[in-house]
Amino acid sequence: MKLFTKQSDLLAVFIKATWKALTFREVAVYSRNKSTNYVFTALKDFVKMEIITEQKIGNVIAYKLNNMTKSLNIISHIAEYRAFNVKSLPKKNIEKLLKKINTSYYTCIVTGSYAKGSEKKESDLDIVIICGDKEKPSSILSQIKYTAEMQIPEIHPYVFTESEFYLMLVNKEENYGKEIARNNLIITGAKQYYSILMRAIENGFNG
């Protein structure tokens, strides 16, 4: 499904904090859209399209991302597209790394300073690979470690299985998994990532 730039900017607000229910005012402020009429109309359209849900909290209407295949497909597309358009990312270096991974099923996420947009010239690039539970993270790490060390900026790779990542999200203690959820650029495998995230949200993860 093709979405216009303004529409994707509005949905990016929900992508940023998938676990939050946002009021109309919050969506307008976070998306930096000055047209209240446009924001109102777009939100109503998203509800009709079942991309987001509408719920009443006290006297306020709030909107939250819908946990359905259709909505996950759309936000996954937007998330990967937005990451691809971040000019500061050394995309060729990331591609070199991903070509070394000997499995077709994984998610690649950039986190750390590059995800926050606060990277400096000397900053390293933090990359997280989330693989299937049948894969061995140590094996994938060995496949990419040498290539990661040879890149400029140097890449710091971290590899977790889906179950490991999920357990970090639902754990009550602060951990790296929660940091990844709060600050990320998803290069590939966004659908798998959001499926794990939504399951974690249903089981108590709230950022």
Helix segment tally: 10
The chain-level structural class is alpha+beta
Residue runs with pLDDT of under 50 for 5 or more positions: none
* CATH architecture tag of the largest domain: 2-Layer Sandwich
State the major sheet.
4 strands, mixed
CATH topology group of the largest domain = Beta Polymerase, domain 2
**What integer value in Å does the Rg equal?**
18 Å
Q: Helix share of residues?
A: 40-55%
Q: Give the name of the CATH superfamily of the largest domain.
A: Beta Polymerase, domain 2
- Distance between the amino and carboxyl termini: 28 Å
Fraction of residues in β-strands: 15-25%
Q: Going across the major beta sheet, what is the strand order?
A: 6-5-4-7
- Categorize the overall geometry: globular
Account of the protein in words:
The chain is of the alpha+beta class. The chain has 2 domains: 5-65, Winged helix-like DNA-binding domain superfamily/Winged helix DNA-binding domain (Arc Repressor Mutant, subunit A), CATH 1.10.10.10; 88-202, 2-Layer Sandwich (Beta Polymerase, domain 2), CATH 3.30.460. Helices cover 50% and strands 18% of the residues. The chain contains 10 helices and 7 strands. It has helices spanning 5-16, 24-31, 36-48, 69-84, 91-98, 113-116, 137-150, 162-170, 176-182, 190-202; strands at residues 22-23, 52-57, 60-65, 106-111, 125-131, 155-161, 185-188. The strands form 2 sheets. A 4-stranded mixed beta sheet has the order 6-5-4-7. A 3-stranded antiparallel beta sheet has the order 1-3-2. The longest helix is centred in the middle third of the chain and has 16 residues, at 69-84. The radius of gyration is 18 Å and the shape is globular. The chain starts with a helix and ends in a 5-residue tail after the last helix. The mean pLDDT is 93.
